[in-house]
Backbone:
């Protein structure tokens, strides 16, 4: 049985790191079908992706479709949903505020690494580029992890 049918990247506001991860991840090869989304913990209104994040993705060859920040909701949480946060504090907030939040990890923790992805708010474009490079490497590791889990579930 397939372990996860959906992957949700979660950030504070769903306008930079999480949507970058979502867009990059959608270009990766997974053995099984998986819905890939992003959400925020505090989304006060539906805003577009940060222009610096968008610029970095475009400059690296990604097609950036319309993205609108969305709040993580209780109905997003489920046994077949993997939730990956950018920071430990975000993971803890999900555990505290959402029922049955079992499959919640930081991105680095899930692929057995340490550390967090630093917040980008107010940072120059160069930092968004560094974040992109880190995400590419982490997501390559995530693909390996998810594909191994897919093979073991057969």
Residues:
């Amino acid at each position: 049985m397939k372990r996860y049918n959906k992957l949700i990247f979660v950030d504070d506001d769903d306008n930079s790191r999480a949507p970058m991860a979502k867009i990059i991840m959608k270009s990766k090869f997974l053995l099984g079908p998986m819905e890939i989304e992003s959400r925020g913990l505090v989304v006060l209104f539906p805003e577009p992706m940060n222009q610096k994040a968008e610029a970095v993705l475009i400059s690296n060859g990604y097609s950036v479709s319309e993205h609108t920040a969305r709040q993580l909701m209780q109905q997003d949480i489920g046994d077949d949903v993997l939730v990956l946060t950018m920071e430990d504090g975000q993971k803890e907030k999900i555990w505290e505020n959402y029922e049955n939040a079992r499959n919640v990890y930081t991105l680095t923790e899930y692929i057995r690494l340490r550390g967090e992805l630093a917040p980008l708010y107010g940072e120059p474009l160069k930092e968004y580029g560094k974040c992109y490079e880190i995400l590419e490497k982490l997501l390559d590791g995530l693909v390996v992890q998810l594909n191994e889990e897919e093979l073991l579930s057969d």
